[in-house]
Amino acid sequence: MTNGNNREVIALDVSTFQELSRTSDVMVIDISAEWCSPCQAFTDVFRDAAASYDDVVFASVDADEQLELGAAFNIKTIPTVAVMRAGALIFVHEGSLSAQALADVIRQARALDVEKVRQSVVGRAASS
Questions:
Q1: pLDDT beyond 60 at 6
Q2: Residue 57 burial (C-beta neighbours within 10 Å; 0-12, 13-18, 19+)
Q3: Contact in structure between 121 and 112 (CB atoms under 8 Å)
Q4: Which phi and psi (to 5°) does residue 9 adopt?
Q5: How far does CA 45 lie from the centroid of its chain?
Q6: In this structure, are residues 102 and 58 in contact, taking their beta carbons and an 8 Å threshold?
Q7: For the range 50-53, what are the long-range contacts, defined as Cβ-Cβ under 8 Å and sequence gap of 24 or more?
Q8: Mean per-residue pLDDT, 13-32
Q9: Which comes out higher in pLDDT, residue 66 or 120?
Q10: Residue 115 backbone phi and psi in degrees, to 5
């Protein structure tokens, strides 16, 4: 799956998650539900951020429909924001973030040494 300009928010299911986690350098995931008022308020912040970054994949998970992904992220509270870099989960925040806090998280994710992240992922896989 490609996301041409990476400006749209992709709805994740298990198969799109697996593909994007392999092919995306930085992926920011909003895990929420339609009925959740705080989730809906954060959606505007999330979509605005998605329109601002060409090199970051923004994706959403409907916690009610994608139970397997919710379980994989060990979701206890929604909204939850997760960030992956080079296929590794590097950040999870329960609750919404302000636009500035989300921008800071993205900046930090982009600044990570990708090779160290990959070595960490390989090391964890080898030890399990």
A1: no
A2: buried
A3: no
A4: -95, 125
A5: 14
A6: no
A7: 50/6, 50/7, 50/8, 50/9, 51/7, 53/6, 53/106
A8: 94
A9: 66
A10: -65, -40
The residue-averaged pLDDT of 100-110 equals: 96
**3-state secondary structure at position 126:** helix
Q: What is the DSSP letter of 17?
A: H
Q: What is the pLDDT of residue 2?
A: 38
Query: Dihedral through CA 91, CA 108, CA 5, CA 28, nearest 10?
Result: 10
User: How does strand 88-94 pair with strand 80-85?
Assistant: antiparallel
Task: Tell me if 69 sits within 8 A of 16, measured CB to CB.
Answer: no
Q: Which amino acid is at 55?
A: D
Q: What is the pTM of this model?
A: 0.85
Separation CA 9–CA 98 (nearest Å): 18
